[in-house]
Amino acid sequence: MDDAARQNGVSLSEMDGMCSASQTAGALIRDLLDHLGDKWTLLVVGMLEAGPVRYSALKIRVPGISQRMLTLTLKKLERDGMVRRESFAEIPPRVEYELTDLGRTLLVPAVGFARWALDNANAIIEAREAYDIRD
Question: How many Cβ atoms are within 10 Å of 41's Cβ, its own excluded?
Answer without folding.
Answer: 20
